[in-house]
Amino acid sequence: MTYARIAGTGMYAPGESISNTELMSIAGIEFDAARYEEKIGIHHRHIARLRNMDETTADFAEKAATAALADARIDAGDVDLFIVATDTPEYISPPTAVLLQGRLQGAQKNAGSFDVNASCAGFATAFDTAARIVATDPDVQVAVVTGVYNMPAYARDGDAFGLSIFADGAGSFVLTKADSAGYLATARVSDGTQWDFVGVYAGGTKRPITHEVLDEGTYGLQLLKRLPGDRNVRLWPDVVRRVAERAGFAIGDIDQVIYTQINRSVIEQVNGILGIPMAKSHTIMDRFGYTGSACVPMAFADAAAREKVQRGDRVVFVASGAGLAVTANAFIY
Q1: Which of 44, 144, 208, 315 has an alpha carbon 20 to 30 Å from 137's alpha carbon atom?
Q2: Residue 132's pLDDT is what?
């Protein structure tokens, strides 16, 4: 049987990190920094626009993918498939993955490229898609799957919620074929009745950007309803159990569970329910804030670089996104 395995990982965050104190000063906002640090776990983040950097989504993706290819020791010209997972694309059209292919390969190639948008569950969804293609398509020997996030570009000036939580970054995997176990299983949850909680609602066909929309200030990132505080606490334990069972993992035998990096206290509660020690859940929100569709691959790349995960480890990802969309992955690293 053929599997997809992770051959290399990479990550990127723009500019020098910004502390909570500095963020309030340079963005002109106020928020409870002590609560963010103690409960949510966010101390620092990277935001290109606040560092006056001329970098956006495609730049982040290119740098993370380049790092992953270097880690895998694979030339960009040998990539057969590019998938970018994001809900903050460089453009509505063409897809960011096409731009990434062009930047890395520099010419027309017999390579596929497309974007996946499952909000902040995007990377886990794209990882599943890429793994299945690599495992089954003889024309795809190497795939690059990249999660990238630039939500601060959509935050309006003075938006304390948007600028304090969301951050810029990208994480990338290089996948190759393998004869021994690699990617094993997926579990999913959707609830489209929750579409109107948080998102970017202007700029599409339903609500194009007009002078009226700009004058009203009803563009960019909008929090329309408060998210239920216990939503992920209720959702994630069942998703972990389902994907572990499908992969043949006992909960106690999982070596690392990486969750959406939005709230450390939620991760602690979920692990308490499952009986998983926090040492088995690497987190990065203290240094990188919440990087949405990039946070899971960034956390894994950071864990690999710090040797918190080893080859042969049993790993589970759980990613939640607005809408509601949840995707979980199980694999042997």
Answers
A1: 315
A2: 98
For residues 60 and 297, the answer to whether their CB atoms sit within 8 Å is no
Evaluate whether 142 touches 78 at the Cβ level (below 8 Å).
yes
Class of domain 3-180: alpha beta
Q: CB within 8 A of 38, min separation 6: which ones?
A: none
Query: Tokens standing for 185?
Result: 């299983």
Helix, strand or coil, per DSSP, at residue 268 = helix
CA dist., res. 172 & res. 77, Å (int): 16
Position 231 confidence tier, pLDDT thresholds 50, 70, 90 = confident
* Alpha-carbon span 272 to 282, nearest angstrom: 15
The pLDDT-based confidence of 20 (bands split at 50, 70, 90) is very high
Domain(s) of CATH 3.40.47.10: residues in the chain: 3-180, 185-191+226-332
Q: Are 120 and 263 in contact (CB under 8 A)?
A: no
Task: Assess contact for 104 and 76: CB atoms under 8 A.
Answer: yes
Which amino acid, 265? Answer: S
CA proximity to 42, closest of 283, 209, 281:
283
SS3 assignment, position 2: coil
| H or E segment and range at residue 178 | strand 169-178
Tokens representing residue 242 in the block = 């389902």
The CATH class of the 185-191+226-332 domain is alpha beta
**What is the chain's mean pLDDT, rounded?**
96
Instruction: Look at residue 227 in the predicted model and tell me its pLDDT.
Output: 77
Residue 10, token pair as written in the block? 């990479």
